[in-house]
């Protein structure tokens, strides 16, 4: 009887030990399953899930650019994620075929369309072009990159600081380039081309009905007029002359 009772107790102890071991092994397996992914695994998942945004816009002309019919320009703007690049290709017609003579590229900071504009900006009879580069004052300041065709170099020259002057236009009265900057008032800046740079030589500021005009030489301003303006009541006035003041 005693031997039988001892056997029952011994078997019960072995059964308890086996159950504890089973529970412990189960916990170990569970811990392995819920283990946090490594930093490398997280980076890989982010890379795999990231979408790449791309966009391409093109412009081509051979009827107005430079000497019409003798040159052709192709402009391509590509956008890959936040990287925006504008590519320029200029062709010249030779033996009734287009020959590539210029191949350049420009980085753009703003996600805006090309809006290419073809005009003669320096009154040499050869059509130049601009591309939309940026915008300010809620779109009132159209900021562009200007490219002037050089007959001597037989290619387009990028005017390096042209994006500093919004709303560029050819000024027929003074045979120069001028710019209109819009803010609470407006400023008309008169510019001349110096190689690949625009240089200020005069400026007119108008704000709250008061106008001031300046001449600029060697980066030094000299005020030549200050007073109330009796012309247009519009604050966004573009002046065609600074002395005398003319709209």
From TrEMBL:
In terms of NCBIfam families, this protein maps to: XAC2610_fam
* Designated name of the protein: Lipoprotein
Lineage, uppermost ranks: Bacteria, Pseudomonadati, Bacteroidota, Flavobacteriia, Flavobacteriales
């Amino acid at each position: 009887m005693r031997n039988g009772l001892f056997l029952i107790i011994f078997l019960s102890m072995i059964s308890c030990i086996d159950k504890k071991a089973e529970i412990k092994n189960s916990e170990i397996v569970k811990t392995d399953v819920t283990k946090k992914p490594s930093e490398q695994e997280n980076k890989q998942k982010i890379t795999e899930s990231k979408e790449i945004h791309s966009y391409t816009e093109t412009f081509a002309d051979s009827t107005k650019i430079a000497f019409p019919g003798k040159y052709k320009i192709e402009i391509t703007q590509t956008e890959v994620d936040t990287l925006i690049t504008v590519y320029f290709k200029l062709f010249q017609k030779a033996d009734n075929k287009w020959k590539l003579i210029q191949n350049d590229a420009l980085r753009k900071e703003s996600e805006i369309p090309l809006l290419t504009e073809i005009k003669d900006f320096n009154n040499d009879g050869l059509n130049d072009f601009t591309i939309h580069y940026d915008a300010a004052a809620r779109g009132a300041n159209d900021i562009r990159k200007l490219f002037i065709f050089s007959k001597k170099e037989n290619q387009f020259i990028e005017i390096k600081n042209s994006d500093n002057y919004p709303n560029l236009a050819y000024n027929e009265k003074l045979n120069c380039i001028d710019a209109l900057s819009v803010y609470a008032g407006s400023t008309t800046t008169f510019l001349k081309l110096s190689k690949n740079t625009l240089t200020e030589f005069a400026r007119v500021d108008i704000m709250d009905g008061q106008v001031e005009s300046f001449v600029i030489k060697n980066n030094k301003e000299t005020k030549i007029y200050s007073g109330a303006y009796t012309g247009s009541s519009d604050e966004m006035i573009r002046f065609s002359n600074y002395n005398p003041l003319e709209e």
